[in-house]
Design a protein that fits this description.
This protein has 426 residues and is of the alpha/beta class. The chain contains 15 helices and 16 strands. A hairpin with a 4-residue loop joins strand 15 and strand 16. Helix 2 crosses helix 3 (108-117) and helix 8 packs across helix 13 (372-388). GO terms for molecular function: glycosyltransferase activity.
């Protein structure tokens, strides 16, 4: 059960304690991974979760003890600095009490607190995404993070785990992190569980939509990072060639802007938050919002499209692959190339054509204004080609499912257990 009192957290055998730190337990891919780690590591260690505060609730409860440092966010510069110091001192007290084998932090804000708190236990960071390409790291604070905080503090960590191999060269060349501190442990996927959930039937109305035309599906938050806006124009061009439908699973701050843009393109839109009526077959684009079981919308689709501007090791892409979907993904930093074309290196210049990887299709990023029209045309051609050829779809789906056997829970968590053994011995 959650606890708001640092001193009430359980104390087990110190060598068996692990402390996991994240700013909050709200909605997000990092929070999902944090939950998965907490559940799996609790099979071997006494896991305690720590958060800055519980204002957003606990959307991914693990069943492990949760300790809130009870430090709110927001406020002016002085308030932020004061709260930062309170988080550091609160985590230090918690580390002194638990004396964990290690404190593992997820997300950058938690990393700084972890690094500066000191106290018992090794300090391990889990880096979930690209730092160089994250468009949210901008302005004076972004400059401070990129030029001062990461280069100065990250080398204090005992180990730094990146979820994608391609984050490592960024940290070395872009931020001066020592190579010997770095290793990659990919995210894992509950393959059997995802496959089972994908078999859940659609509602009668949803099934009718899926039967009407080939379905392209994408999932993820409706945010700047996921870059869904330019996908709509590529899809509108596809409709001038052949019938198809585009389904969005997820919600976010850009939902109204995306719906407006789709309608400006002449697309007929269904948005679940605008009506209580079920979807009907006479629409082109379907925004279905957050779904408790997104997998049932993936399995019966014709293909999965993923236009992100940057990633870490994308859960949504991997989940679609588990469901046996052929995938078309932007060759964005980081993750998609590692998943779809693992034997290849990141190109020296951005991809401008469709590349058939070993396990899926890589496409240009839809982020450069000077090449956007041409890049959207590449996406349109690729979507058309995949929808036209059932044999290609079937083969790509088989390859995608095959690839995901490399990221099962058992394979990935053996790597985490080995890491903890190493830091304990060291």
């Amino acid at each position: 059960m959650p606890s708001n009192n640092i001193d009430s957290s359980p104390v087990g055998k110190a060598a068996n304690n692990l402390l996991l730190l994240i700013p909050n337990l709200g909605l997000g891919g990092a929070q999902r991974v944090f939950h998965d780690h907490s559940v799996e590591l609790a099979k071997t260690y006494a896991v305690t979760e720590a958060v800055f505060n519980l204002e957003g609730g606990d959307l991914y409860p693990s069943g492990n003890p949760v300790v809130s440092l009870e430090v709110e966010g927001g406020g002016g510069v002085l308030t932020k600095l004061r709260n930062f110091r309170r988080r550091i001192s609160g985590l230090r007290r918690l580390r002194e009490r638990l004396r964990p084998l290690a404190c593992v932090s997820h997300l950058e804000g938690a990393d700084y607190v972890n690094l500066l708190s000191g106290g018992p236990g090794k300090t391990i960071l889990c880096v979930h995404g690209s730092k160089l390409h994250d468009a949210n790291i901008r302005g004076p604070i972004g400059w401070l993070r990129k030029k001062v905080l990461i280069p100065t503090l990250y080398n204090r960590a005992d180990r730094i785990v990146t979820v994608s191999r391609d984050i490592i060269p960024e940290l070395i060349t872009g931020f001066g992190v020592k190579p010997e501190k770095l290793l990659t442990i990919n995210n894992f996927f509950e393959v059997a569980q995802i496959e089972a959930k994908s078999q859940e039937p659609l509602s009668e109305a949803e099934a009718a939509v899926y039967a009407e035309s080939p379905i392209l599906v994408t999932s993820g938050r409706l945010t700047q990072q996921k870059n869904q806006r330019p996908l709509l124009a590529a899809f509108a061009a596809l409709l001038r060639r052949r019938p198809a439908k585009l389904v969005f699973i997820g919600d976010g701050e850009l939902r109204d802007a995306l719906v407006t843009h789709a309608r400006e393109l002449g697309l007929r839109v269904y948005a679940a938050w605008e009506t209580s009526a079920p979807p009907t077959v006479d629409r082109d684009v379907y925004f279905l919002g957050l779904q408790q079981n997104p997998f049932k919308y993936l399995r019966p689709a014709a293909a999965f499209v993923f236009p992100s501007a940057w990633e870490g090791f994308p859960m949504a892409l991997g989940e679609a692959m588990v469901c046996g979907l052929p995938v078309l993904s932007a060759d964005c930093p980081t993750g998609p190339r590692e998943m779809l074309a693992p034997a290849t290196a990141t190109p020296a210049t951005p991809l401008r054509h469709a590349e058939r990887g070993a396990y899926g299709i890589l496409l240009p990023m839809l982020t450069q204004p000077s090449t956007l029209v041409a890049d959207q045309a590449v996406w349109t051609d690729a979507m058309d080609a995949v929808l036209t050829d059932p044999a290609v779809r079937s083969r790509l789906g088989e390859l995608a499912r095959e690839r995901m056997q490399d990221f099962t829970r058992e394979r990935i968590f053996n790597q985490w257990l080995k890491l903890f053994e190493e830091v304990s011995a060291g």
